[in-house]
Every structure is written in C-alpha cells, then in structure tokens.
Amino acid sequence: MNKFIEVNNLCLSYKNQQVIKNISFSLEQGKIYGLIGRNGAGKTSLLSLLASFNQPTAGTIKIDGEVPFENARIMQEVAFIYDRDFKDESSPVKEMFDTLKRYRPNFDEEYAKYLLDRFELPLKKPVNKLSKGKKAALNVTIGLSSRAPITIFDEAYLGMDAPTRTFFYKELLEDQARYPRTFILSTHLVSEMDYLFEEVLIIHRGELVFHDDFETLISRGAAITGDFSKVDQFVQGKKKLSEQTLGRTKSVMIYGNLTEEEKEKARSIGLDIGPVNLQDLFIYLTEEGK
Ligand SMILES: Nc1ncnc2c1ncn2[C@@H]1O[C@H](COP(=O)(O)OP(=O)(O)OP(=O)(O)O)[C@@H](O)[C@H]1O
Question: CB 88: neighbour CB atoms within 10 A?
C-alpha cells in the first residue's frame, strides 16, 4: 500500500475541548475517500488539519513523507474546498481563475473554462454577487480544475440543486479517471454520494470509529426482503437497522454477518438477501449510547 497521507495519534483541542481524539489512518494515492460523521463529529476539524489550516495539538500528519504544516511544497499539493460565502471577494469570476493559475501548478485552464460554461457561471460578475448555488459551483470548479494531488471537498455541494450536484459527481468521476488523485469527500448526503466512495471513514465524537473499503463496510449488514411473516421470523433476534413494508412484502436491514447456513435457509424460504445501505449503517454505528 502506498501511504500518501499518514496520520498518527492525531489530536486537536480548542481551549479545553478535545475535538480530534487520537486518530490514526493512512490514505493511498488515487482513491476516493468518503468522510462521514454526525454534526459536530470533527470532520471539518480533521480536514483543516490535513489542509494545514490548523496545527495538531498532538500527533503527526505526513503527506508524501513530509510534515505539511507551513511546508510550501506540500501545501500546494492540497486543495481544501469548503463551503465559503466569498463575501469579501468583489473581483469578477474570471479574475479568480487568473490568480489560481499562479499558485496551482496543475491548474487546467481549458478544463476550468469548460466547467464554468457547464455551470453557467457569468465570468464578469463579481464573485460575492453570485447566488449561493453558483458560489458552490465556482468552488467546485476551483477544486476540480486545480487538479491538486489531494483534493478535499468539505460539503462543497451546499446550495447546489440536484441536477447540478449530479453533474458535479459525474465530472468528479470522469476527471478522476483521466487524472487520478486522492479525493476526500465529506458529506451529509450519504445515500446520494455513497457510490463515489472507494473507502469510507466514519468519525464519531472526535474518534475514528471505522475505516475500510466501501464493500467491506456494507457487507457488515444485509437487507432481507420477502413475505413479511417469513422476514419477521428470519430476523428474530438480529439487530435491525431499519424496515419497510409494502403490502405483504417487507424489507429489513440487519447488522452483522450472516453465516452460509443462514443465507441458505433464507433463500430456501424465498427470501432475497441484498447489501445494506451505507446510510443505515452509518446511522446505526453512530447512534447515541454506542
Ligand atoms: N474554531 C473553533 N473554536 C472552538 N471550537 C470549535 C471550532 N471549530 C469547531 N469547533 C468545535 O469542534 C467540534 C467539531 O466541529 P467540526 O466543525 O469539526 O465538526 P463537523 O463534523 O465538521 O460538524 P458539521 O457536520 O456540523 O459541520 C464541535 O464541537 C465544534 O463546536
């Protein structure tokens, strides 16, 4: 495994509140990571450390073998795109991209123009006069066209309508195929974005409670669907994450691995076994009291 980003025993405190608690993980080059966690879990705090916007209280971060904080070479490799209001940005959209060219070595002007056009961003309009959704589109354009080896989107979609978000996800995947880099996507739109993630990190109350590939995470549970009475009987004694009933058909998400014997039994009575969805698992893994 190529450890492009290595985080060891990372801690961050604001005054006497510890918001990042002894987190360790490593991330590879060229993969898309989903970072999820409930409100106040510490996602932005963690990302701001990776982007050198903050210094750890304890522990270490290494990017490409070097400590990133106040390290000009590494800092230009990291693009941190977060929900910004651009309120002091009175220059026109076009000017922002002229500036970007100077400090993003991989910036692709043609690609930026293509995205600005597709997002229908008016080049002459002052940035702070754009609507919220257009500001988000501008932000995403900066993130994608910078082609930084580490690109972090922290709820960068806020304000975008559904068709625009769909376009953003499609572009992200297509550009990743052309120019692979490490993406970290922090989001609350778990069910909408989960297909983008190759690996998932779940942070809860400042601790990393899960980090593995997407397939491994969703294989921790199963969706059992079929005749409601048979489903009820089969899931008895199992940890239920959620359930839905339509007429006589019921679907129950359960947590925990099924043995081969159990799978065989379910099939023999006409039940269907499917994967659990990430959102239900996430809700379960971060339930209060866990
Ligand atoms: N500048 C700051 N000063 C003091 N406390 C802060 C500061 N920034 C964040 N915190 C606190 O750190 C904790 C983690 O906040 P953070 O913004 O990292 O969470 P988050 O997971 O990104 O949340 P959300 O999903 O709500 O955006 C919260 O308790 C928050 O109040």
Answer: 8
Q: Does domain 5-213 have CATH number 3.40.50.2020?
A: no
Gap between the Cα atoms of 196 and 187, Å rounded = 11
Residues of the chain with CATH 3.40.50.300: 5-213
Residues 150-188 pLDDT 10s: 999 999 999 999 999 999 999 999 999 999 999 999 999
Atom 30 in ligand 1: residue holding the nearest Cα: 40
* Residue whose CA is at the smallest distance from ligand 1 atom 25: 39
CATH topology for 219-285 is Alpha-Beta Plaits (3.30.70)
Between the CA of 44 and the centroid of ligand 1 the distance, in Å, is 7
The single-letter code of the amino acid at 80 is F
Token digits for 99?
Answer: 């500036």
Quote the ipTM score: 0.97
Report residue 263 as tokens.
Answer: 């799978």
> Which residues approach ligand 1 with their CB closer than 6 A?
14, 19, 37, 39-45
Q: Is 182 helix (H, G, I), strand (E, B) or coil?
A: strand
In angstroms, how far apart are the furthest CA atoms of the chain? Answer: 67
Q: How far apart are CA 228 and CA 214, in angstroms?
A: 29
Burial state string for 246-279 with b = 16 or more CB within 10 A and e = fewer than 16: eeeebbbbbbeebeeebeeebeeeebebeebbbb
CATH 3.30.70 positions along the chain are: 219-285
Task: Please list the helix, strand and coil fractions of the chain in percent, rounded to the nearest 5, in that order.
Answer: 35, 30, 35
pTM (predicted TM-score): 0.91
Q: How far is C-alpha 219 from the geometric centre of its chain's CA atoms?
A: 19
